[in-house]
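Much of what follows relies on a compact textual record of a protein's fold. A record is reproduced here so that you can trace the correspondence yourselves:

. . .
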Amino acid sequence: MTATEVITDADWEAQRAADRQMLPNVLDQSMELPHVLLSYQQQLLQTTAHYQFVVCEKSRRIGMTWAVGADGVLTSGLARAEGGMDTLYIGFNLDMAREFIDTCAMWAKAFMPAASSVQEFLFKDQDDGKEDRDIQAFRIRFASGFEIVALSSKPRSLRGRQGYVIFDEAAFHDELEEMLKAANALLMWGGKVLVISTHDGDANAFNVLVRQVNEGEKGDTAKVVRVTFNDAVDAGLYERIALIQRAQGREPMGKQKWIDSTHAVYGDDADEELHCIAKAGTGAWLSAPLIEARMNAEAPCLELELPDDYLQRTNAQQKELMRLFLERLEKVLSAVPLDVLYALGFDFARVSDLSVLTLLAIEKNMHRREALSIEMRNVPGNEQKLIVGMVMERIRTRCVGAAFDATGMGWTVAEDVGRKFGLKEGDDSPGMVWAIKFSQDWYRINMPPLKTAFEEATISIGRWDPHMSDLRAVKKVRGIPRVPEIREADAKGKKRHGDYAIALALAHFASRMRWVEIDYTPVPNNQNREPHSGQLGMTADEQDALNRPWWNPPLGTAMRGGL
C-alpha cells in the first residue's frame, strides 16, 4: 500500500488483527513459554491445569487474557488422549471475541504453525422458542480436531457442548449466574471453567462467586487466583511494558511515575480497578437508607400462594383456596378512597418469579403514595386476571393509567385487561392499559424518574422488608438501571427477582403519562347485570367464567351439529 492510498476501515481492522496475531519480536528469541509469561500469568495457567473450576479476580490491564490465550491454544492443540478439548470463550461484546481469537492466533503461530487461520462464521442461536438468529462468531481449528470458538455473548446451545469455557470480564455479563449453570454441566464430563474479571461492586454476582469459592462452597476442585496491580508490578509488569515500548522506538516513563499515573487515571476507583477490592454498593441504584426513608405509607401487602396441584383440584377446592384471599381483597379495596387519582403497575410471572401489583395514589400535590400491593406466587393466569380486574373495577373512574408487563406470557393479561378497560396504542390514544415490552431504552428512559421521586421525597411506599430487597436488587448494568438475572431468597427461602421494583416502576410510569379520556361502553353479554348474592360482587358471567372449565362453552352458547 502506497503512502497516497486511502486506508479504509476494513484495511485498518485487518492491520490491527494482523498485529495482534504476531508475538512481539522482542519476546520471540527462542524463549520458552514459562519465560515469556510473567510469574502471575504462569500461576494462572498452572492453576487451570490442576483445578476444574478457577476464578481469577484481577487488576485491569495486566495481560491476563493474553496469557489465557496461550492456555486455550495448548488445550485445544492437544489430542483427546492427552487431555485436549474445545475452548469456548465468552466475552460480553464482539470486539472482545475478535481480540481473544487474534491473541490465540498469535500463540498458535508460535506453538504450531500448522494451525489453520482465523475463521468467521455465523452461529445459530434460539431464544426461548423464538426464531433462530445468527450470531457472528470466530474460531481457530487445530489438527487435533478441536477448536477455539469465541462468541460475543453466550448462546443457549452452550448446553450440550463440551470443553474449556472461559468467561472474560465476568462481572460485566448480564446473566452470569445463568451462564455458569450452563457451563457447570461441562464439569461432569471432564470439562473446565475459568471465570476471569475485575470487580464491579460487592453485590455483583462475580464477587459473590469469589466469596463462595473462597469459603469452600464450590468444593475441592475450585480455586481462586487473585492478582492485584502491585502483584503484577512486583512480577515485572513495568519492565515488560518498557521492554516492548523500547523495541517500538518509544522511551518509557520512569517506573514510579508510571505507577503514580496509573493510579491517577483510576482515581477513587483504584482500589476496585487495580487492587481487587470490591467497592461497597457499587452498581447499586438506590441506597437502603433512602428506600427506608420513603417507607412511610400505610399500604397493605396482600400475598397469595397456591399449591402446585391447584389446577388438578376440583372446582370447589379451587374456589375455597381463593375465597379467603378474595374476601380480604374486597375488604381492602372497599377502604381505598375515591377522592384521588390512581396509577397501577403489574409485573407478571407464572412459575419461578412473583406476579406483583402496585397501586399508587396521586395526591393533589402530585405526591405518589402507595395504596396497596399484591404478590402472587404460583397463581394461574385466569386467577391473576380476576384479581387484577377487581382492583381495576374499584378505581376505574379514578385511574389515569395502568402499565402491564407484556413480555412473554404477560401479554395475555395485558391484552385481556385492555380488552375490558381500553388498550392504549400511544401517548395520545384513548384507553387505560399500557402494554409494556421491556427494553434497554425503556429502562434507560423510565427508571431515572423513579429514582428522582425517591431522592426528592415525592413518593411514599409501604414498609415491607421484601420490597426493600427488591428495590436494592436494581443495579446499573452498563449504565442502565435494571434488575440483573440474579435471584435472591427472602426470609422464607422463596426466590425473588426484584419483582416489586419492576411493578413500582410500571406504576410510576403510568402515573406520569398523559390521561386521555375514552368514551366507550362495552356491549353486555348478559342483559341482567345484577350481581350474584354472596359471590363477592361478581356478575353472573364473571362467576361463570371463574367456575367453567375451558372445555365447556360460556353461558348462552352451544355447539351446533355433531362430531
